[in-house]
Each structure stands twice: as C-alpha cells, then as structure tokens.
Write a structure and sequence with these properties.
The chain is 85% helix and 0% strand. The chain has 170 residues and is mainly alpha-helical. The chain has one domain: Growth Hormone, Chain: A (Up-down Bundle), CATH 1.20.1250.20. The protein starts with 9 loop residues before the first helix and ends with a helix.
Length: 170
C-alpha cells in the first residue's frame, strides 16, 4: 500500500475516478447541456415564429441575441471571484436558481424591450457557470485524470445541437 502523503492507492483512486465519472460528471454535463441549450434557444425561436409574434426586425433580433453576452462578459470575473469566496458548489447552485427564474420569465415576454432586458439578465445570471463547472470538476479530479473527465463534460455541447436543434425544428 502506498503511504506517501497525498497519494491514494491505485485501486482507491480508480474507484474514486469511476464514481466521479458516473455520478458527478453526468450531473454537471447535464447542467452544461441545459446552459448551452438555453443560451442558443433564441437562434431556434426566431425563425420558428418568435420574430413574427414579437414583431421584431432583423436588427432587433440580432441585438436581443447578442445582448446576452454583454451581461455575461460584465459579470464573468465578479462571478468567478464569488465562486472562490463562497465555494463552487454553493455558487453553481446560485447560478442555476437565478438562471432558472430568469428563463421562466421568458414565458411572459411580449415585446422587444422585455426580450432584450431578459436576455441581458440571463447573461448576468449565467455568468460564471462554465468556469465554475470546470473548477468544480478540477477540484474533484487529480490532474492526470482531468483531461478524460473534462472531455466527458465537454460532450454536452455538441449533444445540445444534436438533440436540441431537431426537437425545436418540429
């Protein structure tokens, strides 16, 4: 048995990595899947009737699509500072709750101004999620296993397009 400080026996390490890959990564990847689907939903909603329902011009649609990233960029660094202060688990939970509340408010959008404001607030709410998720996984996984675990996490992004796009086109 290896008794050097900070090093687990190989069987314990394999078991821990397996548990992380089976229990933790799918949950965080599902959050990333929903995050990316939510972020790109406007791209599917516009051509399938939202622009007509809200009487949006092409410029208004483009602005509403892009204003998300203004809020996201403005709050990315402060969100990551808060992540370090409060811990990844708590801060990711806060992000998920506020982002869920803002996403639900989209059901009542009736005009361009409401859409633009909510898209900006959605960017603010989501700021820090991706780096927070990476930090959360990095804290749980030793460096030599990190690339495998993070690749499982990253698979959620292309799956969003494969699963999310066809369901919205129907």
């Amino acid at each position: 048995m290896d008794t050097t400080a900070g090093t687990a026996p190989p069987s314990v390490e394999r078991s821990a990595i397996r548990k992380i890959a089976v229990r933790l990564v799918p949950f965080v990847a599902l959050m990333f899947f929903i995050n990316y689907l939510d972020r790109t939903a406007i791209g599917f909603a516009g051509p399938t009737g939202m622009t007509d329902d809200l009487a949006l011009s092409a410029a208004q649609f483009g602005f509403a699509s892009g204003v998300f990233f203004i809020g996201y960029i403005l709050l990315e660094v402060p969100s990551n500072l808060a992540l370090h202060r409060f811990g990844a688990r708590r801060w990711l939970a806060r992000i998920m709750v506020t982002w869920g509340v803002v996403a639900a408010l989209f059901a009542w959008v009736q005009n361009f101004e409401q859409l633009a404001i909510l898209r900006f607030v959605l960017g603010v709410a989501e700021a820090g999620f991706f780096p927070g998720a990476i930090l959360f996984l990095s804290l749980w996984v030793p460096a030599r296993h990190r690339s495998k675990i993070l690749s499982l996490f990253y698979i959620a992004q292309p799956l969003t397009s494969v699963i999310g796009a066809p369901s919205r086109a129907c």
